[in-house]
Design goal:
With 275 residues, the chain is of the alpha/beta class. It has one domain: Dihydropteroate synthase-like (TIM Barrel), CATH 3.20.20.20. The chain has 9 helices and 10 strands. The protein has helices at 37-49, 71-88, 100-108, 125-132, 157-174, 194-202, 222-227, 237-249, 260-274, and strands spanning 2-5, 8-11, 16-22, 54-58, 93-96, 113-116, 136-139, 182-185, 214-216, 252-257. The strands form 2 sheets. The protein has an 8-stranded parallel sheet with strand order 8-7-6-5-4-3-10-9, covered by helices on one side. Strands 1-2 form a two-stranded antiparallel ribbon. Strand 6 (113-116), helix 4 and strand 7 (136-139) form a beta-alpha-beta unit. It binds ligand 8Y7.
């Protein structure tokens, strides 16, 4: 399976790595490091050299408790970076946003994928993506970033996340977004306790039945820190690799990560075994 992302194609016949590029002053593990377009480009080039198949640019931190940013602030942060990256990189650039205006301007600047932690639930977002005709990753979240970790509650987290993703995919199809442009993601850590995250990872393969490529984001997340006795975000690489390999073994097509080189090696070994 190969998906078209604007001027690039993304071959999902084996698990691929999406490199995270935060252009936020407040992200939990690398906030403030790549706000200047030239610094962002350097980091993106390095991730591509390390084997990233796509770079995900985000200008609004979605970590628990994070403040939301205004539309203008988000545009000012991400659009210059996307313009620079799309002209310089050999891989597609994805835009991590929930705002339809940012989706449109990012696509005009050359972005080849939308990564929306709100699964196009903002007013006008489905219509925007339907017009743009680029792939979209629909992620599940319970609640909203500011308060989502206060008291996550499910009867059956796997069934509820799966049903939600299926409904969002259905809404996209109904709005004219082609099925080949839809990817799904259970949203590890987004309104989920450690037990919920573990159930979702244990049962990750059940999401393949929905019929869309799956993305998983576990890199340096607090679920890894919790398992490793409250290890800090900069000490979670090996645990993150274990979770990424498990997700890939259970059908994840894209792993969204901070540590590209290490994850690419892990995915190459995983792919050699899956084949
Ligand atoms: C995810 C994500 C984040 C994820 C997708 C972090 C933007 C928090 N996590 N997008 N974004 N999936 N699709 O720890 O798991 O990187 S932000």
């Amino acid at each position: 399976m190969i998906i078209r992302c604007a001027d690039h194609s993304l071959d999902l016949n084996e698990p691929r790595v999406m490199g995270i590029l935060n252009v936020t002053p407040d992200s939990f593990s690398d906030g403030g490091m790549f706000v200047k377009p030239s610094d962002a480009l350097k980091h993106a080039v390095r991730m591509v050299e390390e084997g990233a198949a796509i770079i995900d640019v985000g200008g609004e931190s979605t970590r628990p408790g994070a403040q939301s940013v205004s539309l203008q602030q988000e545009l000012d942060r991400v659009i210059p970076v996307i313009e620079t990256l799309t002209s310089e990189l050999s891989v597609p650039v994805s835009i991590d946003t929930s705002k339809p205006e940012v989706m449109r301007e990012a696509a005009t600047a050359g972005a080849g994928m939308i990564n929306d932690v709100c699964a196009l639930s903002a007013e006008g977002a489905i219509e925007a993506v339907s017009e743009l005709q680029i792939p979209v990753c629909l992620m599940h979240m319970q609640g909203e970033p500011r308060s989502m970790q206060q008291q996550p509650l499910y009867d059956d987290v796997v069934a509820e996340v799966s049903d939600y993703l299926q409904q969002r995919a259905q809404a996209c199809l109904a709005a004219g977004i082609p099925g080949q442009y839809i990817l799904l993601d259970p949203g590890f850590g987004f309104g989920k306790t450690l037990q919920h995250n573990l159930l979702l990872l244990q049962n990750f393969e059940s999401l393949t039945a929905l019929g869309y490529p799956l993305l998983a984001g576990v890199s340096r997340k607090s679920m890894i820190g919790q398992i490793l006795d409250e290890r800090g975000a900069d000490q979670r690489l090996y645990g993150s690799l274990a979770a990424a390999v498990i997700a890939a073994m259970k059908g994840a097509s894209i792993l969204r990560v901070h540590d590209v080189r290490a994850t690419v090696d892990a995915m190459r070994v995983t792919a050699a075994v899956i084949q």
